[in-house]
Write a structure and sequence with these properties.
It is a multi-pass membrane protein. Keywords: Calcium, Calcium channel, Calcium transport, Endosome, Glycoprotein, Ion channel, Ion transport, Lysosome, Membrane, Repeat, Transmembrane, Transmembrane helix, Transport, Voltage-gated channel. Its main location: membrane. It contains 28 helices and 6 strands. Mean pLDDT is 76; it is low at 570-574, 585-627 and 669-678. It has helices at 2-21, 32-41, 44-59, 88-118, 120-141, 150-154, 156-161, 164-201, 212-216, 221-232, 242-247, 252-304, 321-330, 335-347, 355-361, 382-392, 394-417, 429-453, 455-460, 462-485, 502-516, 525-539, 542-563, 575-584, 612-623, 632-667, 680-683, 693-701; strands spanning 319-320, 352-353, 369-372, 591-598, 600-607, 674-677. It is globular and about 100 Å long. A hairpin with a 1-residue loop joins β4 and β5 (600-607). The chain folds into 3 domains: 178-369 and 677-709, no CATH class; 382-523, Four Helix Bundle (Hemerythrin (Met), subunit A) (Up-down Bundle), CATH 1.20.120; 536-671. The strands form 3 sheets. The protein has a two-stranded antiparallel ribbon with strand order 1-2.
Length: 710
């Protein structure tokens, strides 16, 4: 009937608009039952269950044998880890697989049979589940004693396929690989040529005392290649050249040329190529997201124009405002956008909307999220107005920054004076007194700002919330200190009492005061620009972080399977150890202790070195025949993926975000009461091309489940 058709069109429009909001494809079933199932599947509850399931199955690796459930990682003090009985983690794993089977079944049904065969991710999803379930059955058949579990390496796929942004990022990385491969090949040629030169320069001579370079680094081809590869990361510099340099200073030219060509030219050329190519492919990905949004909005317009209540017009289609209002009431979208669209509809003088007007209404989704600060209170008293003007003026904030700087300087002076004193000789009177004075000023400053700006306006600024929260914490700590130890006085050194000693409480207060000094950032424009760029980057790095977790997880599980049992100090290699090694090869490290066995336990310490220093240590482990030399491929692959490729991709996104922020700063007047929040899609908004009406209609007519009237 007419009523049933109208309800179907309304529900279709609701789903299409929600697809547009989330940049989802509209190529799915659009009958009544499928629409209900589709909205249920993408509901918060269902997606939360799916995310929880992915988290659980990834976390199983920490309790599966070999378990990582120990407090300390030091093999000398670590107690035997708890290993779950056979069947416990397997039961949890089976429940997760059941959730994934329901997930892939619903997805496959909703897209339809034709779209299923075109969707490589869905086919890979099913294949991963089949392999995982087969491996799960084999595991139970062997009573959980098998050494290799293939399904553990496949687990990160569940995280990868659940994020559309991660898929786009991975696709962009995959498209960038050919260009990266050319530079990596050039890097390999550079490495190979210098390896040959090194073997010729540092060949073995008759004088064994002069062969230290040959013995230590260039004994054979694998050792030579390894030494120069580590030198490319600067981890063994200048150690690798010291023996040759001691023999003849001219040998340093070889190492300088290798480092300059490899590090300064080829590695930076790789960064430039990755930035250029990845930016282009990411732009294409965002362009396709924009097309999906426009297509979803246009599909909603087309189905709403088919409503029986809409007057027929052979020349042009229209949508009634009443029908659109019914749709908006049921659509799940940001309240800011919904209110803005509602206001635009109320201001519209006509009763119907054309396709262009309909599309223009939903351009609100593309705009920056703007946060308007509440107005300041209006005081009637002339005295209060003067107070409001004085304490609401930016100069009052500058005064607070000067006071905070003075507090930092005073703390530094006291710390320098007491640096060499024993705790029994330290007098905390001066530090306690100045802390008390400054905290009282911070409290007064906060109260005066609230008086001038009003509580709502004061809390609407993130810097004020940060400032106020730390001030309250400092006040509570100071009151607790006075309650336990009394007021500061000369010789203020009471014994340990309660949870924290006096020195611990004073240190905690001072750390918070130092942290509070970050309040100056919003007042320094360039620093504020850098910080907001980093914060926006953190918000938009979920896809990158997810891919990094996938890489970490896959390499950690692979490392366990490859090296478990090679070194067994009081227990097997733990997943935590593998994660720590991989993490420390990615960032700066302070201290890494690697144990190896050769007649007895010894220690090799790598301190204050960059990421590849751990690789150097691991290569050293391999050189004592603990593990097959082919295992070097594992660590080199990790270095290439994490340090060479992923770090350069991160730099590319960082540069793009910063350049975009800088351009907006140059072309926009500063508005003190407005905050703009950016996403990856909005970052490229100025250079995206709008799809034409012909492109949209052609795509809609290709929809496998939607039959349009025109």
């Amino acid at each position: 009937g007419t009523g049933a058709d109208n309800d179907l069109y309304i529900n279709q429009a609701i789903v299409f608009i929600e697809d547009a909001i989330q940049y989802r494809s509209i190529n799915h079933r659009v009958d009544s039952k499928s629409l209900w199932l589709y909205r249920w599947y993408y509901s918060r509850t269902c997606q939360w269950i799916l995310s929880l399931t992915i988290t659980i199955i990834l976390a199983l690796a920490f309790i599966e044998k070999p378990s990582s459930l120990t407090i300390t990682s030091d093999v000398r003090y670590r107690l035997p880890a708890w290993n779950p009985p056979c069947g416990l983690t397997e039961s949890i794993e089976l429940l997760c697989f059941l959730v994934f089977i329901v997930d892939v079944s619903v997805k496959s049904y909703l897209v339809g049979w034709e779209e299923f065969w075109k969707n490589k991710w869905l086919m890979a999803y099913i294949l991963t589940l089949i392999v995982s379930l087969s491996d799960w059955i084999v595991s139970l058949s062997f009573l959980c004693t098998e050494g290799v579990r293939i399904r553990r390496i496949l687990r990160p796929f569940f995280l990868l396929q659940n994020s559309s942004m991660m898929k786009k990022t991975l696709k962009s990385i995959n498209s960038t690989l050919p260009e990266m491969a050319s530079v990596v090949l050039l890097l390999a040629v550079h490495l190979s040529l210098f390896t040959m030169f090194a073997m010729l320069l540092f060949a073995r001579t008759k004088d064994g005392q002069q062969d230290k370079e040959w013995v230590g680094y260039f004994r054979n081809l694998p050792d030579s290649l390894t030494s120069l590869l580590v030198l490319l990361t600067t981890a063994n510099n200048p150690d690798v050249m010291i023996p040759a340099y001691s023999k003849n200073r001219a040998y340093s030219i070889f190492f300088i040329l290798f480092t300059v060509l490899g590090n300064l030219f080829l590695m930076n050329l790789l960064t430039a190529i990755i930035y250029n190519q990845f930016r282009g492919y990411l732009l294409k990905s965002v362009q396709s997201s924009l097309f999906r949004r426009r297509l979803g909005i246009r599909a909603a317009f087309e189905v709403l124009s088919s409503l029986k209540e809409t007057p027929a017009n052979t020349q042009q289609s229209y949508v009634s405002i009443g029908a659109l209002l019914r749709v908006l009431q049921k659509v799940e979208m940001d309240s800011r956008c919904k209110q803005a669209i509602m206001r635009s509809l109320k201001m519209c003088s006509c009763d119907q909307l054309s396709a262009a007007q309909f599309q223009k209404l939903f351009e609100e989704l593309d705009k920056d999220a703007i946060k308007q600060h509440p107005p300041s209170p209006e005081y009637q008293s002339h005295f209060m107005q003067k107070m409001q003007f004085a304490f609401g003026h930016p100069y009052f904030g500058y005064l607070g920054n000067v006071v905070a700087l003075a507090n930092i300087v005073s703390i530094c002076v006291v710390l320098v004076m007491d640096a060499d004193k024993q705790p029994s000789e330290r007098d905390d009177f001066f530090l306690g007194a100045i802390n008390c004075f400054f905290i009282l000023y911070y409290l007064l400053e906060m109260l005066l700002k609230i008086l001038a700006m009003g509580l709502k306006r004061y809390l609407s600024y993130p810097s004020n919330r940060f400032d106020g929260l730390l001030t309250v914490i400092l006040l509570v700590l100071e009151i607790a200190t006075f309650a336990v130890y009394g007021f500061p006085h000369p010789g203020w050194r009471p014994e340990f009492m309660g949870l924290l000693s006096l020195w611990d409480m004073v240190r905690l207060v001072n750390m918070l005061i130092v942290f509070r000094f970050l309040r100056i950032i919003p007042n320094m424009k360039f620093m504020a620009l850098v910080v907001t760029t980093l914060l926006d980057l953190v918000k938009n790095l979920r896809a990158f972080a997810g891919i990094l977790v996938v890489v970490f997880y896959a390499f950690a599980i692979t490392g366990i399977m490859l090296f478990e049992g090679a070194v067994t100090p009081l227990g097997n290699i733990r997943l935590k150890f593998i994660f720590i090694v991989l993490f420390q090869t990615f960032f700066y490290i302070k201290e890494v202790v690697v144990l190896y066995f050769k007649e007895k336990w010894r220690f090799v310490a790598c301190s204050d070195r960059f990421q590849a220093e751990v690789i150097c240590c691991l290569f050293y482990l391999l050189s004592v025949n603990l593990i097959c030399r082919w295992a070097k491929i594992y660590f080199v692959a990790w270095w290439l993926i994490s340090s060479v490729i992923w770090v350069n991709l991160f730099v590319a996104l960082l540069l793009e975000n910063f350049i975009h922020k800088w351009d907006r700063r140059c072309h926009r007047e500063p508005l003190s009461d407005i905050e703009y929040q950016r996403t990856v899609e909005l970052m490229f908004r100025d250079v995206l091309e709008e799809p034409t009406e012909e492109e949209l209609m052609e795509k809609l007519h290709e929809h496998p489940h939607l039959q349009l009237c025109r």
